[in-house]
Amino acid sequence: FTSTREQKMKRYRVLIFLVLCFQFTILYLTQFFSPQFIQSMVLVGENNIYNIFKAEKQFILNGSISLVAKKSNESNVTDIKLDINGEFFPSIMTSDSNGRLGNQICAYATLLYFQMLHGFHAILNEGQVGTIGSVFQEDKIEISASRINMPPQFNFNWESVASHTPQGAWFPNQEFLENIDNYKYNKFINIGMYPHYLFLFKSIVGHIKKNLLFKNQTQDLVDKCLAELREETSSDKEIIFVGVHCRRTDYGWHMESLAGATLVDHTYFDKAFDIYRSRYNTDSRQVVFLAVSDDQPWIKENLGKHSDVRFGLDFSQGKVEDGQMPGFDLCLLASCDHSIHTYGTFGMWGSLLAGGDVIATTGTTGKEEATTEEDQIYRRAAMENWVYLDVRDKENIQEVTISPSTSAT
User: What is the pTM of this model?
Assistant: First the structure.
């Protein structure tokens, strides 16, 4: 009798304990998922998560939290599971990109794509937004610098939905793309370190061009340079500016180590120049090439033989501080009518922001099947108005087009 009574009292105490735990958890989590708590999650920036939630307050509360206690069939242990059901908040999405300007713009563009088209809430850290804001007008940047503060009793993990190829090209996992609705709520999503998802964000480049505006003093200086060139070159002909970006220095090691590729030489540019001259030089129009590079001596030695080539450094020297040179160079490229670039994200964004025709490289591995990071990105994107020069045979560089491909190889 005594044993039975003790067992009942023990069960009663356990039941009271579980009820108290349940009540405490519900009380705490109700605060956790309230709009007031969500407001405190993002501390920096006007376009923060709370501004989105204010318009969808009914949406926030459309969910339930419950504790489910179930005794295990295999032991005497009772499993207590916290179930969160419903759409409490749009999934927060970020990238841990730690690259320079071109990489950060790629991360920004990719995040903006998922925010605009799929309803994710995109965030970047202060350093990432600071890199973009050092070149573009900060009040026009559509993704805020943000940080998430969680109560000490809670933590979360970023769920990675991307991976990279051996050549270094990052792509979102196919499972994520095919089941994206399953990721839209109550998750923290990481889209990869270098999300150069041109095949996705190419659809919003027009929007990006209208809202990612260069700082006024940079744009004014570039406009003045172009006006001087028009006056210097000809008063009768329309000048067609072609931006030229030549990436060298440390990128040679990058290409060699990841894909066994090599940097292009002057023959690539000679061919590209001839293509644009044949397209646009007429009795009423004249092409002028504006070249910028991270290796100024090389481009002056190898491209200076062309009478229609000008160098960005000649217009920025003494007017632009070293730390502001990337912004000036990118603005100069973006202000042109058409583009030539080699590889890397900086030149790619010069071409995208300029619009018009684009010539880029392929075949830098020197092999038929081998591909580089850029080859994989371009094949997936299949950009209109882009032509690629196959540089495997320097004596016979060929124009090629790239057909759409969903393969990452």
Answer: 0.81
